[in-house]
Amino acid sequence: MHRRRLFIGLAIACPTVVLLLVFVASRFLAAVDDLASGRPVEADCSKVVDFAGGSMPAEATGARCTDTGGWQEQGYEAEFRMPRADLAARLTAAFPRVRLVDEGTSRMSLRNRDETDENRPRGKAMLVELDVAYESDTTALVKLNATDL
Description:
Layout: H1 2-37, E1 41-42, H2 45-51, E2 61-67, E3 74-83, H3 87-94, E4 99-103, E5 107-111, E6 127-134, E7 139-148
Antiparallel strand pairs: 1-2, 2-3, 3-7, 4-5, 5-6, 6-7
């Protein structure tokens, strides 16, 4: 009688374990395929700006964030729009690690150029770049790149 119960229990448990393993393997392969395909993988924008050592600026709209990291590095990109008024000051307030490095009539660039490994906050991106393109007299498109080379 005990052998029969054991056999029935194994007969039920084995297919369940096999189905569970197939499910886990398929999810793993789907994640690997997403990374290998080069398709952008969505990321949580609060995690992205935190990794960059900042916060999402006030009045930023339409934020889209992606994980661009690979096997050995961590990296993120974010894109959002902002009003042009006092843009450099508001971006450096939101991302205190960056400084204005170039400003033209149609663009602006901010980077963490003078930062060294010793004064970089622990667990944050090694490289933080903000590239701004003026879309009109009132709005600008901001692209953030934060990577841990």
